[in-house]
Amino acid sequence: MSFGKWIGASLGWSFGGPIGAIIGLALGSMVDSFSSGKEEYTSGRTQQGRRPNYRTQQQRRAQTTSGDFEVSLLILASVVIKADGKQDQRELDYVRQQFVSMYGKERANNAFRLFKNISSQKIPLRQVCLQIQQMMDHASRLQLMHFLFGIAKADGMVTADEEKTIYTIAGYLGISSRDYESIKSMFYNSSDNAYKILEIPKSATVEEIKKAYRNMAKKYHPDKVLHLGKEHQKGAEEKFRQVQEAYEQLQKERGF
């Protein structure tokens, strides 16, 4: 599949707003001839009907496509990778590995052609995140956060600058502090991680632990992101597995 056809067929709401502007600028810088890609890009829009305009959808959330999620992740990943003032090759390799795993080599290569041009831009982070918050469902935004921490941890540790950037992104995305700490704890080792993952205090009773587990298992269930396609199930299953492990750890510690 050519680049123009790939991006034309993959995106929904992200054609508009600040994300659309970033994509447009990146496409304009592509080595690939945009004159031929442009026709495919336009036909991709026509084949799926008129694309919703970002400004007209602030009161009605459109369903996020796999492509919308993919582009949002690429843009936010470019911000996180540069948060500590450098682009670590291990983090870049992690992003590529994740994309190959999710989308296959050809689509991953297309994504990275776009990523290189996105990375050279100055990203209006708040505006991008506000568009994502308005247009993307909560479960998908949690999935984005999980990927961002995975990228930051790819070089062995999450630096203070990377954590600060991800925290800022979480705030702009409308992620609660409890959800943020839950996902963050999946990438750190500490004695109270299991409690943080389940979003409960260490003083929680056995019944409160059981209730929290049921709530978190529902929140992080892979079915919540089925609309993103099977390529995103692996990441969702990883979050779900860590919730299960946190609960099993507390079962052993508390003896229930």
UniProtKB/TrEMBL annotation:
In terms of SUPFAM superfamilies, this protein maps to:
Chaperone J-domain (SSF46565), TerB-like (SSF158682)
Q: Name one Pfam family in it.
A: TerB
Q: Does the keyword Transmembrane apply?
A: yes
Instruction: From the record, give the transmembrane residue ranges.
Output: 6-28
The chain positions of domain J read 193-255
Ordered alphabetically, the record's keywords are: Membrane, Transmembrane, Transmembrane helix
Q: Give the region (Disordered) as residue ranges.
A: 38-63
* SMART domains, per the entry: DnaJ
Q: Which domain of life is it from?
A: Bacteria
| Record-given protein name | Molecular chaperone DjiA
What is the originating organism of this protein? Oceanihabitans sediminis
